[in-house]
Amino acid sequence: MEQDAQLVQQCLQGDGSAWEELVRRHSRRIFNICYRFTGNRTEAEDLSQDVFLRVYRTLGSYRSAHGGFATWATSVTRNLLIDHYRRTKRDRITDSLDDKMPVVENKESAGRRPDEQALLGELSMQVQSALTRLSPELREAVILRDLQQLDYAEIQTVLAVPEGTVKSRINRGRIELARILQQMGVRPA
Amino acid sequence: MTWTCDLVEARLSDYLEGLLQGPERAEFEAHANSCADCAPLVANVRSLVGEMHAMQVLETPPRLVYAILDKTLGPRETVTGWQGFLNAIRGLATPKFAYGAASVMATLFIVLGASGFSLRKAKLADLRPAAIYQTADRGAHRVFARSVKYVSDLRVVYEIQSRLRQDENNLQTTPEEMLPKSAPEKIPGQTDQQKPSQPRQQNRANEISRQLEMMATEMPMLGERSVR
Question: Which residues from B are below 8 Å from A124, CB to CB?
Answer without folding.
Answer: 51, 55-56
